[in-house]
Amino acid sequence: MKKHTILICLLIMGCSRHPHRDLAISYPFPRPDSTALTFLPGIISGDSLDFNAAFSPDGTSCYFSRSSGGVSDIYVTQFEGDQWQLPEMVSFSKGPFSEADPVFAPNGALYFISDRPSNEKDTLKNFNIWYVKPNGKGKWTEPVNERAVNSDSTEYYISFSANGNLYLASNRPGGYGSHDIYMSRLEDGAYTTPVNLGPAINAPQMEHDPYVTPDENAVIFTSVNRDDSKGTADLYYSVKSADNTWTPSRNLGTLINTPTYDFCPYISPDGKYFFFSSERDVKWIKTDALPGELKQLIVKTE
């Protein structure tokens, strides 16, 4: 199912301060500076609706979502030899259900969203958060429903802090708008009930697709139809104040936001590049192009 359709028509979708010091991602050429480029055209960004990007912990694989024929699936491209290979659908995504929004947790598990039923009695056609764990030789365990963060509503687009706290979007009741951003703490190995991030981030319209910096000092997200937006949906950010509250959110600006729909924010594990989705493709730009107060919170490896 196309994510844009899910978000707009159905209204049901969407490194700590010490990044990976031993990570060396083989980025393709040409590489962007202050102008966003399409990421891996013909491999990740093709003729389909391709969105979001997430690197594996070792930087040799990149996972993304692809929508075709009304179903979304998760694909992966591997860096082998001296180039990124044509993508393949991951094994757990082969089936009649839609899967999307892959991202790695600090413990190495791969989280994603799926509209598969949570059990044999589940008849709700909504998206929940699931995860798989590596099982050796590129294989994965069977998907597990992360029940503590899910509800009878839709949950989607996951992001993790370095300590394992989980940020997500949901259209569950009680929010400030149709979809809001929430956070669930990892305590004693289990997730707590998600808490709404509040009105500094969540507006009366619709917020989704959160990316949190590893130390939880900033969050980047998509907001729909705000007064200062450049297009249908723009990327915004909020930083955490000294009193541990979120500052009023601000637009990321015209170096990133377009007249179309901008979503799926993600910063590479080495802190060098900012990824987002726009115009049916995955885009990337140097993190140096981000606003100053946000840029200074990102630690880059050399």
From TrEMBL:
Pfam family, one: PD40
Signal peptide start-end: none
Alphabetical list of PROSITE patterns matching this protein: PIPLC_X_DOMAIN, PROKAR_LIPOPROTEIN
Gene3D superfamilies registered for this protein in UniProt: TolB, C-terminal domain (2.120.10.30)
Assigned protein family: Belongs to the TolB family.
Protein name: Exo-alpha-sialidase
Organism lineage string: Bacteria, Pseudomonadati, Bacteroidota, Flavobacteriia, Flavobacteriales
